[in-house]
Amino acid sequence: MKRSTRESADSARRISRRALLLGGAQIGFGGLLALRMRYLQVDQADEFRLLAEENRINIRLIAPARGEIFDRHGAVIAKNEPSYRLTMVREDAGDVDEVIRRLSALVELEEEDLNRALVEMKRSAPFLPVTIADRVSWEAISRVAVNAPALPGITPEVGLSRHYPLGRDFAHVTGYVGPVSDYDLSKIDDPDQLLRIPRFQIGKVGIEAKLEDQLRGKAGAKRIEVNAAGREMRELSRREGQPGTNLQLTLDHRLQNYVQARLGQESAAVVILDCESGDILACASAPSFDPNLFVRGISVADYKALTENPYRPLANKTVQGLYPPGSTFKMVTALAALDAGVITPEETVYCPGHVEISNRRFHCWKRVGHGHVDLETSLRESCDVYYYDIAMRVGIEKISAMAQQLGLGQRFDIPMSAVARGRAPTKAWKQETYDQQWLVGDTANAAIGQGFVLASPLQLAVMSARLATGRAVEPRLIKTIDGIEQPIRGGDPLNVGNGLLRDVRKAMYEVSNNRRGTAYRSRIIEDAFRMAGKTGTSQVRNITAAERARGVTRNKDLPWERRDHALFVNFAPFRDPKFAVAVVVEHGGGGSTAAAPIARDVTLQALYDGDPPLEAYPKADRSRVKAQQERLRRERHEILDNGRDRA
Known about the structure:
Layout: H1 5-43, H2 45-52, E1 56-62, E2 69-70, E3 76-89, H3 90-93, H4 96-106, H5 111-123, E4 129-134, H6 138-146, E5 154-163, H7 171-174, E6 176-179, H8 182-186, E7 201-205, H9 206-210, H10 212-216, E8 220-226, E9 232-239, E10 247-249, H11 253-263, E11 268-274, E12 280-286, H12 300-307, H13 330-340, E13 349-351, E14 354-357, E15 360-363, E16 371-373, H14 375-380, H15 384-394, H16 396-405, H17 427-434, H18 440-447, H19 457-469, E17 471-473, E18 478-481, E19 484-485, E20 490-493, H20 498-513, E21 532-538, H21 545-549, E22 565-572, E23 579-585, H22 591-608, H23 622-646
Parallel strand pairs: 2-10
Antiparallel strand pairs: 1-8, 2-3, 3-4, 3-5, 6-7, 8-9, 10-18, 11-12, 11-23, 13-16, 14-15, 17-20, 18-19, 21-22, 22-23
Helix pairs in contact: 11-22, 11-23, 13-15, 13-16, 15-18
């Protein structure tokens, strides 16, 4: 069909408009391309010229400063200190062996460190730096800098390394850091790229490991331009990392220092708690070790000396060590029986020195017996038969429930390695664990803290604090995180009558302050600071028939590892409890002779916030205590002064 003149004109106008729009779009697009080409060819000419010459830009991580750790008063426990080191970039060095030979003529290189560096170098990318020598002196750094042209690929650097100025005092609590290993990486699903840096330090045990993510911080980065030969040309940009979180512990470094010195080379543990807040004021395991040995990788000889020591210096006995609590458990049995109403504080039990249970004779420690004893006398003189008797009436389930309420058989939430749960056994537990029925004799053994019952020194200290206050005190180790106070947990009243707790506390007071008490020789004389406590001796062996025939019946006649453990728990002052203490001396013999004197000394140190006056001790002990104080003061000041010098 032929279109009209008007239709043809309209069609022509539409076509002209479309052509104009399309043409304009093409011109605009062309203009953008022209501007982009000008930017690339003119403005960015220098950068692309370098890239055209086979330069490349590397991104290198910047390790952040690790968070520091302080005691409750601000004393430094773990810090970072500058450390000079020499690094090598393999592709820059060219002939690695020749460069190392030249470097060896200028700096003394440890063969073990050098071999480790060569292994790392083979595993790392050729352009990544690997540490050849660490903790190099300033003089050595200067010699390397002067001879830099002859040492391609070698770079002197300054970095940060962990240091523990108080050394052995806090080794078991803070733990230590060490170079990250393949084993460390295998335990992490998505490792932080920082951990890929050769010789990067990571927490291995203790707080350093448990709070690693907070202490480590966040990595920074820098963009480095290097030429075709791998030589660093310039730093293009830098983003600093975020330093790790600073921690303040509840521990008191002066008290911890004293306790560690007081324990000396004993295989022992002490825990001191603040009864009000649950703050752990001292947490000492002996013998200790120097955590600084581990920071850059401990030598084979040093590690062997620690692992072959029968006193197990690497083990944190305060939370990892589990021991039969012995007679320190008797307060649990007594409270369970009193709370169940199967006995009253005044009711007596006759102790002839033994009791027959299921055709088996269970002996009291005093073979001639204690006669008629009530609650106070039974605790004061630690009569076993009394507790055998009342345990038969109350049963293991209620004893176990009371133990749980007092803090035994619990794993407390504190950032330390391998915190043990302990054991407050029940019939169901034995059936599940051993596929055996609970026996009446098992209840008798549990009544005096033997058999299946196990507790750590931390748990025993918590038990003492709960007995002293009547509240569910929870231990706290972290006081502040980056200055923010951490909450105090627990503190609810125990589900035990206050009258019953008062009866048990009064009996514990008699243990330390009555002439017939098992801890009377380790009493505190100052009336305002008198303590209430309980001795314990836990059996770890049975004397064989052959040994008995040879007359071996006492601890001192046995090898050290077969002697009884010595224990003591206490709180003070009796009228207004401020501190709860637990002491365990492995294979120390009797609690009254080995553990109670230590507990008395560390309790006084806490009460006086320093060395107590001699008048606080019994007269018979003052000359010995004076000499002991002078010796410990010298040892403690030496440790603290060395720490301040390094701080």
